[in-house]
Design brief:
One of its GO terms (molecular function) is AMP kinase activity. By secondary structure, the protein is of the alpha/beta class. Helices cover 48% and strands 15% of the residues. It has one domain: Rossmann fold (3-Layer(aba) Sandwich), CATH 3.40.50. A hairpin with a 6-residue loop joins strand 5 and strand 6. Helix 1 crosses helix 9, helix 2 crosses helix 3 and helix 4 packs parallel to helix 5. Bound molecules: BIS(adenosine)-5'-pentaphosphate (AP5) and zinc ion.
């Protein structure tokens, strides 16, 4: 299966993508995680992306599209993939269409996670991520690790993202409304969109997502 996950910052895309990718046996491709990995390794791409990310702005398409394409062309993605955080504007959605067409493949669905702005602010404020693996996501109240500060899955150290400040979150929400929301209509017009409420327990949202994707 080839799936795109959309939703505002803090909707639970990374959390659900990790679980859905396991269930569907396809790789979880997160452009946010790819940028963060480049930043922690101080690559030229990471250095370029960091200022945009810390400010909550989208990283320019010239950098993002090539990076996402390279990842989609890895052998493990031949059987399908779950895209988390890409595409994020109409230019990227059209570039993705071209990449898929060049390879004779198509999307099976676009899953939109719906959640209120108050809830995303609560989720982001308490989020903790694993230093070893960006897919290992926790929350100090809602999704606690067994030992505070330690990843349940690999024992890695948990940390708070540098773009989870109040100011950067405000900009990320603005970027989402002005640049990302238009892709929801784009995919609805293609008959690919399924929208689910992302409230409730993590496991309940996963069940809802699987049901929606099965159609
Ligand atoms: P990215 O890393 O993609 O961040 P984002 O879209 O802002 O989304 P988040 O990671 O904040 O949230 P999420 O929806 O994954 O929620 P999570 O599962 O963590 O992008 C970061 C930056 O990179 C961008 O601002 C941009 O600069 C750049 N970038 C990335 N892709 C780009 C692109 N394509 N183009 C240009 N720039 C790009 O959950 C949040 C919290 O809630 C967690 O603590 C979790 O434990 C908790 N939680 C999850 N589900 C539930 C639930 N059901 N109930 C209670 N709590 C829950
Ligand atoms: Zn971990």
């Amino acid at each position: 299966m080839r799936i795109v996950l959309v939703g505002p910052p803090g909707a639970g895309k990374g959390t659900q993508a990790h679980l859905l990718a396991k269930t569907l046996s396809i790789p979880h491709i997160s452009t946010g995680d790819l940028f963060r990995a480049n930043i922690s390794q101080s690559t030229p791409l990471g250095l370029e992306a960091k200022a945009y990310m810390d400010a909550g702005k989208l990283v320019p398409d010239e950098i993002t599209i090539g990076m996402a394409k390279d990842r989609m062309m890895q052998p493990d993605a031949a059987k399908g993939f779950l895209l988390d955080g890409f595409p994020r504007n109409l230019g990227q959605a059209k570039a993705l269409d071209e990449i898929l067409a060049e390879n004779g493949i198509a999307l099976d669905g676009v899953l939109d996670l719906e959640v209120s702005e108050d809830e995303v602010v609560r989720r982001i404020a308490g989020r903790r991520l694993c230093r070893n693996n960006g897919s290992h996501v926790f929350h100090v109240d809602y999704n606690q690790p067994a030992t505070p500060g330690v990843c349940d899955e690999c024992g890695g150290e948990l940390y708070q993202r540098t773009d989870d400040t109040e100011e950067a979150v405000r900009v990320r929400l603005e970027e989402y409304h002005t640049k990302t929301e238009p892709i929801i209509g784009y995919y609805a017009d293609q008959g690919l969109l399924v929208t689910i409420p992302a409230l409730g327990k993590v496991s309940e949202v996963t069940e809802r997502a699987i049901e929606a994707l099965r159609g």
